[in-house]
Amino acid sequence: VLTFFLIERGRTTTLFMRELGGQPAAAAYSMIDFGYCGIVVVSMALLAVGQLRTSKGLNPLPAVLVFVGAAYGLALCIVIYVMDIAHLVGDLKLISELSAVYEPLFLMTFILLCAGLAAQPTVRLFQQRIRRVQAERLRRQLEPLWLRATFLRPGLRTNATAEDPEARLHRTIVEIRDAAIDPRVSLALTSSERVALDRAEQHLLGNETIGLQPKITNVEEADT
């Protein structure tokens, strides 16, 4: 703010630094602004690197976009610093040469950072959709076992049609487990049913990796 008010601004202009950048106060104003921007993009790059080390699947994509955008942003800040100094010393040729890379750097920084920040919620929504589909598939695999368990213990059955797929899967597992430990009934699980039940529980715990588990269309296929 101080450096801005020290600038001899004169008339209103849309070419602020081009017309006024030769003033030391204008150069200081620009360098302070883009020094702050440089700190921000470097911080974003470091955070992106941290996410890349711990992310799997589609999760690294937003971090990669942010990291590359931050790298472009840092390069942009450096170019602006050099242009500010060149303007102060009157090296107009250098300013002209750097102007050719200024616009592409600015555009790529803007596009990549926006894409990276927008990709984070997009990836989360996509993963939530995948988890819902998986939960419904796992619930259908357990349905024959669940029908047998609730036939032996009719009081267990609940109407969960209005719940989301993961809640319905959770309810299905709970009702099967309750029937299995009830000493009043005998619910024997085959090896394939145990595999399907364990897989469903791991899914709810977040331990199942998407795409790495072999698909079983029904629980009897596990025996073969």
Give a structural overview.
By secondary structure, this protein is mainly α. The radius of gyration is 30 Å and the shape is rod-shaped. Helix 5 runs parallel beside helix 6.
Q: How would you summarize the topology of this molecule?
A:
Blueprint (H helix, E strand, L loop, with lengths): L1 H5 L9 H5 L3 H31 L5 H30 L2 H61 L12 H17 L9 H15 L19
Helix pairs in contact: 3-4, 4-5, 5-6, 5-7, 6-7
Q: If helices are DSSP runs of H or I spanning 4 or more residues, what is the number of helices?
A: 7
Q: Please outline the major beta sheet.
A: none
Q: Which runs of at least 5 residues are low in confidence (pLDDT < 50)?
A: 209-224
Rounded to the nearest angstrom, the distance between the terminal CA atoms is 75 Å
- Strand runs, count: 0
> What share of the residues lie within helices?
over 70%
How large, in whole angstroms, is the Cα Rg? 30 Å
Helix-strand pattern: HHHHHHH
**Average pLDDT score:** 82
What is the overall silhouette?
A: rod-shaped
State the secondary-structure class: mainly alpha
What proportion strand?
Answer: under 5%
